[in-house]
Q: What sequence folds into this?
């Protein structure tokens, strides 16, 4: 069972009745926002860089370094022609993938500049001394770098990076159909379309074009949301596996471990189904809260599983279930009551994140109680094991544990009703 993605990737913090949230909704209707959303997101096709992370993941003060692509040789005439054709293809395309921005293709602008300077009666000194009369692309390989650098210094093109001697990076800037404010499904469709188009163009590129790639701030937002959705589901599997492993190590009973896994799976499935039924979608807040749900959903079952395997030796499954219920039942009910009370109080807050947290907390506690008292204990009482592996080799430990259990049972029986 999967949560549907949010239609609005930017979740509100406050209810619509709040004046700040009302202002936020109103601002999206401004002409400037409408124009920005209609133009699409900004995408750059980068030549000459290698997308890699060379920084330390454990030290934020050690950032990643820029790594140039040694296979990118823009001075080759075949590369020049390819880059110019790529610009023309984007500029004159049907705009289903990318839309060319004004003054956004260095090679195209470089060709226009060469034609203008070659036809001028008073060309720039930089052109005369660096380009040797070139009037169009491609230019001779031996003068390309000096001529392109002269063009960059005279126009300050943002898509060109050089070290004073050779051109290192060229970037073609375009616009995609989706923005970071678009629904998640539209962002995913747009990213995959641009990525597929990029891979197809790379397969037709000459060797000197190197391995270019697409990058976009809007794609970073989409990738963050996508990874959070994947992490929400992955954490469910990890929590289920860890809880099962812990039960197996402490109880040394495969049967109890399987019962625990079934009960925890019920908690996750039932809670998720209720939230989906209430209209929840999986966005930024919901992904974080879903991870919290998983940890809370394992708690009660783990306690009952440990209590069930506590009596040493051969003890009937009915007696083990009764002792687990008597030992842990009051504590689990008390914990459920206090946690549920906290969730109910939080439901009256103004912040929507707190409200969502309260709802998912209450729903998880409700189904955790059902999963532990009904699912787990009923399974143990009906088909549970009567004995488990001894936790120690010393007989004295088993005797002490049995004496503690008998003492606890007697104290329970003496309590007035």
A:
């Amino acid at each position: 069972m999967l949560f549907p993605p949010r239609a609005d990737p930017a979740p509100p913090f406050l209810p619509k009745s709040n004046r700040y949230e009302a202002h936020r909704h109103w601002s999206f209707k401004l002409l400037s926002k409408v124009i920005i959303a209609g133009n699409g997101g900004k995408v750059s096709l980068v030549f000459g860089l290698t997308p890699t992370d060379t920084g330390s993941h454990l030290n934020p003060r050690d950032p990643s370094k820029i790594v140039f692509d040694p296979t990118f040789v823009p001075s080759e005439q075949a590369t020049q022609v390819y880059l110019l054709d790529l610009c023309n293809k984007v500029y004159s395309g049907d705009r289903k993938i990318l839309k060319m921005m004004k003054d956004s293709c260095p090679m195209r602008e470089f060709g226009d500049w060469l034609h203008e300077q070659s036809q001028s009666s008073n060309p720039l000194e930089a052109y005369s001394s660096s380009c040797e009369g070139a009037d169009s692309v491609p230019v001779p390989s031996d003068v390309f770098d000096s001529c392109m650098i002269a063009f960059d210094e005279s126009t300050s093109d943002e898509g060109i990076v050089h070290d004073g001697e050779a051109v290192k990076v060229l970037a073609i800037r375009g616009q995609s159909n989706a923005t970071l404010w678009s629904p998640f499904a539209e962002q995913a469709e747009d990213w995959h379309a641009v990525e597929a188009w990029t891979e197809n163009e790379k397969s037709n590129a000459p060797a000197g074009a190197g391995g270019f790639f697409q990058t976009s701030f809007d794609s970073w937002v989409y990738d963050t949301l996508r990874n959070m959705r994947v992490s929400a589901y992955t954490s469910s599997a990890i929590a289920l596996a860890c809880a099962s492993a812990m039960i197996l190590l402490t109880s040394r009973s495969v049967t109890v471990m399987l019962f625990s896994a079934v009960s925890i799976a019920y908690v996750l499935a039932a809670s998720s189904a209720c939230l989906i039924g209430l209209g929840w979608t999986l966005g930024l807040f919901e992904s974080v809260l879903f991870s919290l749900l998983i940890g809370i959903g394992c708690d009660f079952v783990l306690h009952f599983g440990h209590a069930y395997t506590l009596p040493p030796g051969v003890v009937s499954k009915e007696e083990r279930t009764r002792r687990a219920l008597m030992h842990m039942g009051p504590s689990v009910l008390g914990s459920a009551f206090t946690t549920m009370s906290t969730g109910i109080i939080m439901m009256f807050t103004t912040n929507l994140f707190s409200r969502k947290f309260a709802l998912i907390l209450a729903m998880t506690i409700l189904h955790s109680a059902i999963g532990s008292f009904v699912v787990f204990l009923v399974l143990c009482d009906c088909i549970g094991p009567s004995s488990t592996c001894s936790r120690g080799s010393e007989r004295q430990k088993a005797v002490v544990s049995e004496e503690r259990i008998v003492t606890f049972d007697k104290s329970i029986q003496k309590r007035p009703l």
Summary: The beta strands are 42-47, 99-100, 160-162, 167-175, 213-215. The two ends are 45 Å apart (CA to CA). Residues 116 and 233 are 58 Å apart (CA to CA).
